[in-house]
Amino acid sequence: VPIANLKLDHVYTGLQEQGVATIDYRQEALQVALSASQEFTHMVLYTPPPEADAPYFCLENQTCSTDAINIHHRGMREIAHVLELHPGESSEGWIRYSVSDIHTEGVVL
């Protein structure tokens, strides 16, 4: 299915620690793997509307839901996953993108 024909706009919640999302670019024989630290419990998958005729998509790790503040205030705290910090506190995490050759499973980038 061509990406331009898809209509996707979804937030996946409760991702497992050490989970990896992969995207295969078969014509180029490449695979992109996305992994993240445990703070990133959500992932957004989005495509522009079909009328945009745009051949791309977005796959984005997030630490919280879209509209997390409002969801949190409605009592759905686990789904919202708002990370609250007090003055002087800090938080950090990481996101890793690994590009590899599908045929050899060797890292390209």
Précis, in short:
The chain is built from two helices and six strands.
Task: Provide a descriptive summary of the structure in words.
This protein is mostly beta strands and 109 residues long. The protein has one domain (3-101). It contains 2 helices and 6 strands; from the N terminus they run βββββααβ. The chain has helices at 68-73, 77-80, and strands at residues 9-12, 20-25, 30-36, 42-46, 58-62, 95-101. The chain has a 3-stranded antiparallel beta sheet, with no helix packed on it. Strands 2-3-6 form a 3-stranded antiparallel beta sheet, with no helix packed on it. β2 (20-25) and β3 form a beta hairpin. The two termini are 27 Å apart.
Residue share in β-strands: 25-35%
Radius of gyration: 17 Å
List the total number of helices. 2
Helix content: under 10%
Number of self-contained structural domains: 1
N-to-C span: 27 Å
Residue windows where pLDDT falls under 50 for at least 5 positions: none
C-alpha geometry:
flat
Largest sheet: 3 strands, antiparallel
Please report the total strand number as a whole number: 6
State the secondary-structure class: mainly beta
Mean pLDDT value: 89
The helix/strand order is: EEEEEHHE
| Order of strands, widest sheet | 1-4-5
